[in-house]
Design goal:
Layout: E1 9-14, E2 29-30, E3 58-64, H1 74-82, E4 87-94, E5 113-120, H2 177-191, E6 214-220, H3 223-258, H4 264-289, E7 296-298, E8 327-333, E9 354-360, E10 371-372, E11 374-378, H5 382-385
Antiparallel strand pairs: 1-6, 1-7, 2-3, 2-6, 3-4, 4-5, 5-10, 7-8, 8-9, 9-11
Helix pairs in contact: 3-4
The structure holds zinc ion (4 copies).
């Protein structure tokens, strides 16, 4: 992830050798297990329980998005090295139960998502001061992992397991009973009690709890598209108005037919809302049609691309950070990501129009090293789908 810029950075998924997605390469990635930045204070599963079903949430994605470093004269370099925010990674988790995703934002206690922000100084307990060599694979002995800091990760989900181990072999590690049962079925049963090395846990291919793993690569969106959109919106000012008049005209007819069950004003308002929503949805589709594979849009402090005119968060909906500072928009997850997660089922599945992530505008260091942040889900409005 490039440092924060004024333009929109688009995220795409790509297959990548697994070693490139290790913590020491500061990866941006989708699926698999999280690559923790702070290796000592990894969140425990109780911080990842879904408030609806009480199951541990699954890692969805992380993006590495440090603040810009500026020109590297000596004074700036030293200031940057001492800044509490040289490395910065954002994490998103979500519940895997489709029924937990039927909630709306108004029930914010029941969000099936969890967001964390983690930051480190350039001089820290875990990583070298110099950036890693991204072209050479690290030998197994040089892999930096939470194990070196006495943190055991769950063999199934990769979160902090505390000290819960398989009672029989004392080797396999789990964050919760559910994951122990899951692992027993998918492979541990055959291995329990036999010798196995550190990296010889159940093969990830059998692990249906995790999402498929990809690297998340970014590219700037062409500035032209934003400029085009602004221009068209000015031109379209009148045509939106035309659409509204058509809507109002239909309403008039409806009123005559129904002999006034609703006031003209109410119906007019309804028609306008639907028209605005169609326009917003067309805008959304048009903007992403230039790069249809984008799974993420990053623009710290920028404006999200809304999927609908309905259910946009107002300023008071965005809960401030626990430090008191406002939260600002940082990135959004696009519906295209769903096609890579293999979550489709016949009756119900995890679904969203877009997920908007807001973070502390001060990138504060208050609270836990994995600091909770805020997510707003926007669904497609019914009229958009038809
Ligand atoms: Zn749930
Ligand atoms: Zn687990
Ligand atoms: Zn065992
Ligand atoms: Zn804050």
């Amino acid at each position: 992830m490039a440092a924060c810029t004024n333009n929109v950075e688009l995220g795409f998924v790509e297959k990548s050798p697994p070693w490139r997605l290790l913590s020491q390469f500061f990866p941006s990635k989708v699926g698999g297990k999280p690559a923790w930045l702070n290796l000592k204070e990894v969140p425990k599963s109780k911080n990842l329980f879904c408030p609806n079903c009480n199951k541990t949430m699954t890692f969805l994605l992380q993006i590495y998005c440090p603040p810009p470093t500026g020109d590297e004269d000596d004074a700036t370099a030293e200031a940057t090295a001492q800044s509490t925010c040289f490395h910065r990674t954002l994490y998103v988790f979500c519940c895997r139960e489709a029924t937990c995703h039927q909630t709306s934002n108004s029930e914010d206690q029941k969000s099936p998502f969890a967001i964390f922000r983690c930051q480190l100084e350039r001089r820290n307990d875990f990583y070298s001061y110099e950036p890693p060599d991204e072209d050479s694979q690290v030998p197994e002995k040089d892999i930096i992992s939470p194990k070196q800091f006495d943190v055991l990760l769950c063999d199934v989900c990769g979160c902090n397991a505390g000290d819960r181990k398989c009672g029989k072999c004392q080797k396999a590690v789990y964050c919760c009973k559910d994951h122990q049962v899951m692992d027993w079925k998918i492979g541990h049963k055959a291995k329990c009690g036999k010798e196995f090395g550190l990296h010889d846990a159940t093969p990830p291919a059998n692990n249906k709890f995790l999402f498929p793993e990809f690297e998340l690569v970014t590219e700037p969106e062409s500035e032209e598209y934003a400029a085009q959109e602004a221009e068209e919106n000015i031109e379209k000012g009148s045509s939106n108005e035309d659409l509204r008049l058509v809507g109002a005209g239909l309403v008039q007819t409806a009123v005559e037919l129904e002999n006034g069950y609703m006031s003209t004003k109410d119906l007019d308002r309804m028609a306008r809302k639907e028209t605005d929503d169609d326009v917003q949805f067309m805008n959304f589709k048009k903007r992403i049609s230039h790069d249809p594979d984008q799974v993420l849009r990053y623009q710290k402090g920028g404006r999200p691309l809304f999927v609908s005119a309905n259910d946009q968060p107002s300023e008071k909906d965005i809960v401030p950070c626990s430090c008191g500072a406002k939260r600002q928009f940082e990135f959004q997850i696009m519906p295209q990501l769903l096609t890579h997660l293999e979550v489709d089922s016949l009756d119900a599945s995890i679904d969203w129009g877009t997920l908007l992530i807001y973070t502390c505008s001060k990138s504060c260091t208050e609270g836990p090293p994995y600091h909770p942040e805020f997510l707003w889900k926007q669904d497609y409005h019914n009229s958009s789908i038809s």
